[in-house]
Amino acid sequence: MHERPNHSTEKREARLAWAFVLPALSVVALIAIFPLLWTFWESLHVHDLRMPWRGNPFVGLENYREAFTEPRFWQALGHTLFFTAISVALEVVLGLILALALNRAYRGRGFVRVLVLLPWAIPTVVAALLWRFIFEERGIVNAALINAGAMDGAHPLVWFGHSLLAWTPVILADVWKTTPFVTLLLLAGLQNIDSTLYEAARMDGASPWMQFTNITLPLLKPALLVVLIFRTLDAFRVFDLIYVLTNGGPGTSTEPIALYTFTRLMNNLRFGYGSALSVIVFLVTFLLAVVYIRALGVKLTEKPQ
Amino acid sequence: MIRALVALRSAAIVLLIGAIVLGILFPFYWAIVASFRPETELFGTPSLWPQEWVTEHYQKLFDERNFWVPIRNSLIVAGATTFLCVVIGAFCAYAVARLQFRGKAPILGFILAVTMFPQITIVSPLYLLLRELRLINTYPGLVFPYLTFAMPLTVWLLVSFFRQLPRELEEAGLIDGASRLRVFWEIVLPLSWPGLATTAIITFIYCWNEFLFALSFTLGPERQTVPVAIALFRGQYQVPWGQILAAASLATAPAAILIVIFQRRIVTGLTAGAVKG
Q1: Residue A196's Cα: distance from chain center in Å?
Q2: DSSP 8-state code for residue A300
Q3: In a domain, A11, yes or no
Q4: Among A155, A178, B30, B137, which is 20 to 30 Å from A212 by CA?
Q5: Percent of chain A at pLDDT exceeding 70
């Protein structure tokens, strides 16, 4: 029997709850939400730290107009979408295959789990450096290609000097670093699926492919969607990886939007214009999240049973 | 026939996993081994196993570059951030997980939204703010910005830990007349140290790895964290690959050690929040 909680205990509990929640919430509001509003305010002004005598006059949407008429902005946005689409697609497909394989294997699962966490846990900067070393002009990839006779030893490929080829190490490094994490999430999703469903399907003569499309995929959908959202938003803000691997080069041919914004802010010290770019990045991210959540009907904050 | 097919399939799975294991490990192996090669043996057609092992890159790293400084900076910044987040976040997470009050769902949604937004969007105001407060190139000048991503992460992880605790003990305490605060302090917190520790480890790893804020809000080697220091290594004439790889190997050590010890807990922590949602 449940005693009916009386009004005052309920109230007291709510008051305690707010006392517990407020410190963390105000920290987040103070250092995340307030700056976000400030960014928006900055973006309506000219604010050039190298030219303090200009002050910071209000210019309305002028910074946005400049961004939208600048080819480099559109290129950077395009690069980011290109990178996001390719790397997330590769990571989800590879992660799913690996999770299915691991779900079957019983021996050595612990070992593989440690291994799978390693690339996730190291700094992205370090991952980028490892792959930069591997793809250097006289590095192991070119050495292997020359050995295999696929490349002329006198003219090794300069991976980082070619505007399209430079994406190879970038995407490989990202796939290497994050597929393991995707695998972990999907593996946890797979392990939540009731194994008796498969037994029943097998008794009814369902082929492995039918089991996969009729049981695994539908039941894995929530986990897949969570992975898709997290990875898409994460890939969209790519910065560290490219800063170290190619620094956006050659030229600006691998420059993502976050790096372009960073350059305008911290190298050119154009805070008004850089803030406008920041707001655009924020809005696109927000839009992506809303589209995902709407289109796929995910409830991320739902209580577990 | 069927048995042969089954055997074939498990052989294929073993092969697949083996190939992936190799793929994951190779970059680590290649970098660690290379950090012990003499500079002249780094490129060209190096053998899989070095002919000669040297420790000169590590020596130079600490003698010439004073690599202790970034290590110390990273430990201080990541440690302080983690401590603040777990202490403040535990209260918030407990309230969201267990207490009845209006506004719970929006709070959780808000926290999740903040974990997702791109760091670059707040670099400009944070820089101006820190400059105004004279906190550029200081430890607090990194800890405060780090709270923006670490606090939501900590709360998010802890909420799923608190939800997994059995309710019965808390209810028993409440029926015995203990206040909610006492129940939290004397029953819940002692029980949830594994969750707190796991959350602390994951938060620490995120802070240890952070790059954009550390790059934007430090000015020189005296306050740079490990990732920034490594990314900005430059030699006078050429890229000092030996030292870079030595530093990279060292930078992976804390995460690697924590993972080998706590892998099961970390996996539970990472997946509980995301998948059961």
Answers
A1: 35
A2: T
A3: no
A4: A178
A5: 93
d(CA B15, CA B190): 45
Question: Which residues are CB-neighbours of A59 under 8 A, at least 6 positions away?
Answer: A44, A45, A46, A272
A43 in any annotated domain: no
Alpha helices in B120-186 (DSSP H): 123-132, 140-164, 167-175, 180-182
Q: Does any domain span residue A38?
A: no
* DSSP states of B20-81: HHHHHHHHHHHHHHHTTS-GGGSSSS--SS-SS---HHHHHHHHTS-THHHHHHHHHHHHHH
Domain-embedded: residue A62: no
| Mean pLDDT, residues A173-185 taken together | 91
Which residues share a beta bridge with A270? Answer: A48
Under a CB-based contact definition with an 8 Å cutoff, are residues B162 and B104 in contact? no
Residue A222 structural domain: 70-296
pTM of this prediction?
A: 0.90
Alpha-carbon distances, residue A55 vs A269, A277, B129 (angstroms): 14, 20, 17
Find residues 134-163 of chain B whose CB sits inside 8 Å of chain A.
144-145, 147-148, 151-152, 155, 160, 163
B92 in A contact zone (CB under 8 Å) = yes
Cβ distance B27 to A13 less than 8 Å, yes or no, reads: no
Helix (H, G, I), strand (E, B) or coil at A58: strand
Q: At B276, is the pLDDT very low, low, confident or very high (cuts 50, 70, 90)?
A: very low
Q: Are A91 and A182 in contact (CB under 8 A)?
A: yes
Task: Give, in degrees to the nearest 5, the angle at Cα A196 between A191 and A202.
Answer: 115
CATH number reported for the structural domain that contains residue A228 in this entry: 1.10.3720.10
- Find tokens 């974990």 and name the residue: B115
Class of domain B63-275: mainly alpha
Q: Does residue B275 carry a pLDDT above 50?
A: no
- State how far the alpha carbon of B54 is from the alpha carbons of B30, B172, B243, in Å: 15, 63, 12
Option in B101, B230, B260 nearest A114 (CB): B260
Tell me which DSSP letter residue B238 carries: S
Give the number of A-B residue pairs with CB atoms closer than 8 Å: 298
Cβ-Cβ contacts under 8 Å for B90 (sequence gap 6 or more): B158, B189, B196
Q: Which two tokens stand for residue A81?
A: 């979408």
B185-214 b/e (C-beta count within 10 Å ≥ 16 → b): eebbeeebeebbebbbbbbbbbbbbbbbbb
Distance of residue A253 Cα from the nearest chain B Cα, in angstroms: 20
Q: Determine phi and psi for A271, rounding to 5 degrees.
A: -75, -35
Is pLDDT at B47 greater than 90 in this prediction?
Answer: no
CA distances from A299 to A245, B9, B220, B275 (A): 36, 37, 44, 11
Q: How far apart are CA B250 and CA B71, in angstroms?
A: 9
Q: What percent of chain B is predicted at pLDDT more than 90?
A: 43
Domain ranges for chain B: 2-58, 63-275
How many structural domains comprise chain A?
1
Hey, are the CB atoms on B209 and A123 less than 8 Å from each other? yes
Angle between helix B241-275 and helix B56-63 axes, rounded to 10 deg:
80
